[in-house]
Write a structure and sequence with these properties.
153 residues, alpha+beta, two-stranded antiparallel ribbon
Length: 153
């Protein structure tokens, strides 16, 4: 059995499910900041209905890359284009090294990596290394800045 690539410092995105109203503003902000074409998303908001009358309920989940402890996408990439950044614990992707095979797309249990068919290359969330999640000088990044639920609390 081959050595399993293990993320020693996995990172994530804070999401307060109780504050989420399902507006998808984070999804739009992510799409905008990553300049994604129609049909491509790095962050997906899913809505769920549970219960039944007289006590129905709705909840929402905003998900993107989970920067897994043992990322399946890293394991299957034959070109080494998907890798763990040892410094910050994020799972990253080297577009130049990507051969567009799509193995990482199929291997990810969360459906996160996206094969951009027109370019024949996979793209993915960069773990908020861009202006999406971190912002500058301690300021909120565009995702949390756009979130209605965040500002309501």
């Amino acid at each position: 059995m081959a050595d399993v690539k293990e993320n020693k410092n996995p990172q994530g995105f804070y999401f307060n499910q109780q504050a989420c109203i399902g507006c998808r503003t984070c999804q739009v902000a992510c799409k905008d900041k990553n300049d994604l074409e129609v049909g491509y998303l790095f962050r997906r908001v899913e809505s769920f209905e549970v219960g039944e009358f007289p006590k129905p309920a709705t909840f929402h989940y905003s998900g993107a890359c989970n920067h897994c402890h043992t990322p399946a996408c890293v394991e299957v990439c034959p070109a080494g284009a998907t890798y763990i950044n040892e410094e910050d614990g994020t799972v990253q992707h080297d577009d130049e090294a990507c051969i567009g095979c799509g193995y990482c797309v199929k291997a990810c249990p969360y459906g996160h990596p996206v094969l951009i068919e027109e370019l024949n290359v996979v793209h993915r969330c960069d773990g908020h290394r861009s202006p999406c999640g971190r912002g500058e000088a301690g300021l909120r990044g565009s995702l949390s800045h756009a979130c209605f639920g965040f500002w309501a609390h």
